[in-house]
Amino acid sequence: MTQETTGRETTGRISSTSRTSFTQRLSTIPGAQEALERTRVPRQLISGALRWVAVVGWVVLFTGALCWYAGRRLGWLELAVAGVALVAVFVAALVFTLGRQPYAVDLRLSDRRVAVGDRAMAGIVVRNTSHHRVMPARIEMPVGAAEVTFALPALSGGAEHEELFAIPTSRRAVIDVGPVRSVRGDPLGLVRRAMTWTEVEELFVHPRTVRLASSAAGFLHDLEGQTTRDITPSDLAFHALREYIPGDDRRHIHWRSTARTGTLMVRQFEETRRSHIVVALSRNRADYYDDEELETAISAAGSLGLQAFAEEKDLTVLTSHERLTALSRRQLLDELTRLEPGAGTQSVISMAQTVSSEIEHASLAILVCGSAVTAHDLRAAGAVLPIGVRALAIRADGDATPGVSTVGVVTVVTVPTLDDLPHSLRKAMR
């Protein structure tokens, strides 16, 4: 990804509206307009320089001026010399910030979406757009909670400098990369002049997922859908024949049976429905022993969702706090990446109630939770689900051994790590 923008100052404190209104009022004084025009450039330089001064810079300047004044008043030559030296240091620090920064900065990410543990690289290309040599500077760029800093050497006209660095991807997160700033200042940090060149880019570190075998995922393998016991006058799965009733579709009259019995006979069908998978993930912090269990649960939910997409099943993904938008693989992983631990009274029971009341024609409900969820909670959640919906629970427990058990109508699959999920699911579906 490439991002390039025009640099802008980042340390302004006085609004442009206030400065403009003050200048307009001053220009009404006779002779002030000419004076303002003559001093426009110096005033801009001084205004910019004042914005660049750090707190420690003001302390040095004030201390120097005070020492010089006190030394002159008291006849203390050493104190006056110390004051002059401090003021000279401040003036020298200002010199470090002078000059243009004619840069064109290009921020490049190797990929905006990676999985946990994958390599993510970023690069910054700085080009001198002028025809003359520019002085060295420093480049700063926030990367999440950290900050990348490197020295930018002096560049001749048209020259480029490139820096590459790796971005840690050990944890699921949305990492803000940028903005890139070029900074000029003195070694003591008295004065700092920063220019912002790019916008913030988002790097998605998706949760790790595993591939699930089709037979192990518990999905329904049918071309027309799952047949039900509901009788319908029009569908694909033939059920029986019955006598014609006024209003029946004549296209479903079975003419051979009609000719044999002498009575109009029509076909009846069993209603079929397309397999609809519901993945309900608890993100309530109280349902997990630690953050590792939550990460295992999120990865398990992502793996189940990707398997549903691979088999072209209808998929609904929700959490204990909201319903996620999952229309594609990328969108599902992006939504899971943004999840944070929540609080409140939401539980696996409330998720089951949501499935029952808001999601129609669900064929398989998978509840994903942590070790703090009890067998009583899972039994109650299974009792809430509609009749005919198969109930499965994925329970992340870092201290347990992989296993399969049954609690009420719910098949409970316990997985200490994500790598145990495929084998445990395969056992559960035998």
List keywords for this structure.
430 residues; alpha+beta; Immunoglobulin-like; Rossmann fold; 3 domains; 6-stranded mixed sheet; 5-stranded antiparallel sheet; 11 helices; 21 strands; 32% helix; 29% strand
Give me the secondary-structure topology.
Elements: E1 2-3, E2 8-9, H1 16-27, H2 32-38, H3 40-52, H4 55-74, H5 77-97, E3 103-109, E4 113-115, E5 120-128, E6 137-143, E7 146-152, E8 160-167, E9 173-177, E10 181-185, E11 192-196, E12 201-206, E13 226-232, E14 237-243, H6 255-261, E15 265-273, E16 276-281, H7 291-310, E17 314-319, H8 329-337, H9 348-358, E18 364-370, H10 375-384, E19 390-396, E20 403-407, E21 410-415, H11 421-428
Parallel strand pairs: 4-12, 16-17, 16-18, 18-19, 19-21
Antiparallel strand pairs: 1-3, 2-11, 3-5, 5-8, 6-7, 6-10, 9-12, 10-11, 13-15, 14-15, 20-21
Helix pairs in contact: 4-5, 7-8, 9-10
